[in-house]
Amino acid sequence: MSREIFTRWMLAAALSFMPFAHAQKGPAPAPAHAEIGEIPWASLPNEARETIALIRKGGPYPYAKDGAVFGNREAILPKQNRGYYREYTVKTPGQRSRGARRIIWGKGGEFYYTDDHYNHFRRVRE
User: Exposed/middle/buried for 85, CB within 10 Å: 0-12, 13-18, 19+?
Assistant: First the structure.
């Protein structure tokens, strides 16, 4: 294969992948706060209401990681300084591990509930 044919072949191959790479990027993500819904207090699972009661009481908490700083790495909750949010496990009946349910408490007194391990949050409306 001549050098010219090889160069043209390589250029064609590279260009054929460009639209694919561009298509992978997709649209710009929506603002993080747009993904937060609301959940009325009465609609929370009993275990979530119990967890909030423990937070308000100051413990004791059943899981060692309860009260740990929630880093908001997913950037779904409103942006705050590190340490503003704390996370607490919501017991899942029949689950041996901590499960996926959490209450996130903000220093401003707000509570967020997630039942899918931080993929979606709903602010608790009392």
Answer: buried
- Residue 109 domain boundaries: 30-125
Is residue 83 in some structural domain?
Answer: yes
Structure tokens at 109: 């007194």
- Is residue 120 flagged as an active site residue? no
Spatial distance between the Cα atoms of 33 and 110, rounded to a whole number of angstroms: 14
**Identified catalytic residue from 33, 50, 74, 87:** 87
Q: Which residue among 33, 50, 110, 117 is the active-site one? A: 117
The pLDDT tens digits of the residues spanning 22-77 come to 444 444 444 444 478 999 999 999 999 999 999 999 999 999 999 999 999 989 99
Q: 25 lies in a domain?
A: no
Q: What is the CA radius of gyration of the chain?
A: 23
Overall number of domains in the chain: 1
Q: Is 74 a catalytic residue?
A: no
- For residues 111 and 123, the answer to whether their CB atoms sit within 8 Å is yes
Residue 13 lies in a domain: no
Can you give the pTM of this predicted structure? 0.72
